[in-house]
Specification:
The protein is of the alpha/beta class. The chain is built from seven helices and six strands. It binds 3-methylbut-3-enyl trihydrogen diphosphate (IPE) (2 copies) and magnesium ion (MG).
Length: 242
Amino acid sequence: MPAAAPTFSTLPRHIAVIMDGNGRWAELKGLPRHKGHEAGARTVRTITEECARLGVGRLTLYAFSAENWKRPKREIDFLMKLLKRYLAGERPTLMKNGIRFTAIGRLHELSPEVLAEIEKTKAITRENPKMTMTLALNYGGRGEIVDAAREFAGDALRRGKVPELTEDEFAKYLYDPAGAEVDLLIRTGGDHRVSNFLLWESSYAELWFTKAFWPDFGIPQLHEALGDFAKRDRRFGGLTER
Ligand code: IPE
Ligand code: IPE
Ligand code: MG
């Protein structure tokens, strides 16, 4: 008999993942780096489906950072090709699982072919009710805050006055205001840094680091992170009532 699926007393509403370690996973196996990215794309499917099944509301995955353009052209070309293939191939799975797809980042700087796949996937999955899955593409956290500030300034110019600015008001200018709070931030691959991911959104996120490379991060590893999250005491600067 298969083991009963675990239940968690508290589930994060929004999980964000820095999917790191694809290249090292491949190198360790004597494979070219792109094999690691292919394996990583399979992990995206597993983790996305499991999060939706568990009832997580939002899953944001760091797929390509604004800094990743520094990589060799060959690797970037492969990643963009993989992204197109992933989006086209994943639409039936997203539909089957009721997952809405979105993307954040400076998307207009991506190629028209990639943009077209993003738009198509967004449009087809728009009404899906179960979970929102967001890919961060050409994304940088500082860039997002600067873009939000630019939008805010543009609004002020149009209105001829500077609107009242609070944190909640500013968050409306983020790429996806509905994703403005991250509850659990996971980074695979063994490094302990945020690499310019969701700087505003993670201000009170619980952090979970694992040495596992992203292609090896499976359902048991996700459950381990969720089990630990459920035990955390989130004080938000306050005190726990005892
Ligand atoms: C993460 O894996 C995927 C992307 C950044 C696109 P890496 O490609 O960074 O893999 P490592 O960190 O070099 O092992
Ligand atoms: C972070 O991984 C970006 C993604 C997972 C897309 P990197 O491999 O680019 O980050 P650094 O260079 O180790 O900080
Ligand atoms: Mg890396």
